[in-house]
Amino acid sequence: MARKTPLTKVKGSTHLYKNISKGITNYYVKFTFNNKQFGEKNITKIFGITTLLEAKQKTLELYEQILKGCNPFETSEVTLDSLFESYISKRSVSYQSTHRPTYNKWVKPIIGGKDITKVTKVDITIILDNMKSAKLNGATIRKIKTILNPVFSDAVSDELIAMNTLDKIRWMEDYKVSKGQKLDLAMRVNEKNTVVAKKIYQAVMALDETSSNHKFAFLVSLMCGRRRGEILKITYGDIDAKGFVTAWADNTKTSVVETYPLPDEAWNLVIRDGHAPTETLTRFKDRAFNTAYDKLIENANIAIKDGSKITSHDNRTLLLSILVSKGHNFENADRMLSHRRKDISGTYFSNDTQAQKKLYEEYWEILRSPIKYVGDELVEATPEQMKQPDSDPYDVQQVYE
């Protein structure tokens, strides 16, 4: 595989080269002695060289060994552990805390100490089958690819291996999600999506001041369509003075940096005094979030079918379906959900914060508008309908304004 950035000879050195890729400097050496060539070797990867001084000293050591008739690279091993550590140490603390434990538990005992050139499809399969035997679902098992793929891809780029061993695995076919597929939201509730969204909005707004952390998280989930894991990592420093949130690549599922606006309901809860920029706005973990959200849905009094439930992830479906039902372009609405974008127009729209905010604001106004009973159905009410009494006098308390 061709290197994306060329080698540059280090000034004053005959055998030492370097290249800079993704902000990281890698040092290489090339030697020829007695008509024998020692092709370029990445001494940053092989020996952990990170500074120019170290690189120069190592180059002299290697050349001395070659002059003695030795091949200094013959017995050098580049272990998966060393490559993984080199990669993950450059990532954020949150990324490390998420992925390092998985690596240490499942990968390290099997192939961590193995030379990258000797890691086989069988090795990877053993790891995946061990996870499968532990009753982990397919989505969790496939995280091994997320963790290892950058390491193997870099190894291919650095010509340590000819191809990415992970590409030999049938990830989707052999490691499917084991749990039953969740039914579409429309099949789990007996109310229109607009009514469901409004009921959730009213339940969130009914939370008292002691639940401000929950309230902020639930508002961002419902009104901005962001994923739970991403919301729980929002810090005070991620929110600018105009109420826009920057979602960093390490925190988004698609590994891209995105910016989105906060509605006033959430923006008013951001009180910076006494909080460090690195402090998160929420205080609870995934499980606590899920428990609190289940309680919120219970309080929302949504007509949910027996055996079904609504999760915070359904807020993304609500945002998309409601905007499309109002006549908006599907692609533009979908881009608000941080899905992977393959088209240039999608990138332009996502970078146009004003166009994006305009679409968000229309959705927010839909959530804020009232619903009431018309006949025997709870619907999104027009101003004229709101002036009329409820069809059922016993349902007067179910007018949401």
Provide key terms for this protein:
401 residues; alpha+beta; DNA polymerase, domain 1; 4-stranded antiparallel beta sheet; two-stranded antiparallel ribbon; elongated; disordered C terminus
Care to count the β-strands?
8
Number of helices: 18
Helix content: 40-55%
Q: Based on CA inertia axes, which overall geometry fits?
A: elongated
The CATH architecture of the largest domain can be given as Orthogonal Bundle
Q: Give a quick account of the main beta sheet: strands, pairing sense, barrel closure.
A: 4 strands, antiparallel
CATH topology heading of the largest domain: hpI Integrase, Chain A
- Overall mean pLDDT: 81
What topology, given as strand order, has the largest sheet? 1-2-3-4
- H/E element sequence: EEEEHHHHHHHHHHHEEHHHHHHEEH
Radius of gyration, in angstroms, nearest whole number: 28 Å
The H-level CATH homologous superfamily of the largest domain, spelled out, is Intergrase catalytic core
- CATH C-level class of the largest domain is Mainly Alpha
> Strand-residue fraction?
5-15%
Query: Pairing-aware structural class of the strands and helices?
Result: alpha+beta
Total number of domains: 3
The poorly predicted ranges are 177-181, 342-350, 390-401
- N- and C-termini, Cα separation: 62 Å
Overview of this protein structure:
The chain is an alpha+beta fold and 401 residues long. It folds into 3 domains: 8-67, no CATH class; 80-174, DNA polymerase, domain 1, CATH 1.10.150.130; 185-369, Intergrase catalytic core (hpI Integrase, Chain A). It has helices at residues 43-47, 52-67, 80-88, 93-112, 121-133, 138-141, 143-157, 171-174, 193-205, 212-224, 228-231, 264-267, 286-300, 314-325, 330-335, 344-351, 353-368, 383-387, and strands at residues 8-9, 16-21, 24-33, 36-42, 244-247, 258-261, 371-374, 377-380. Strands 1-2-3-4 form a 4-stranded antiparallel sheet. Strands 5-6 form a two-stranded antiparallel sheet. The N and C termini lie far apart (62 Å).
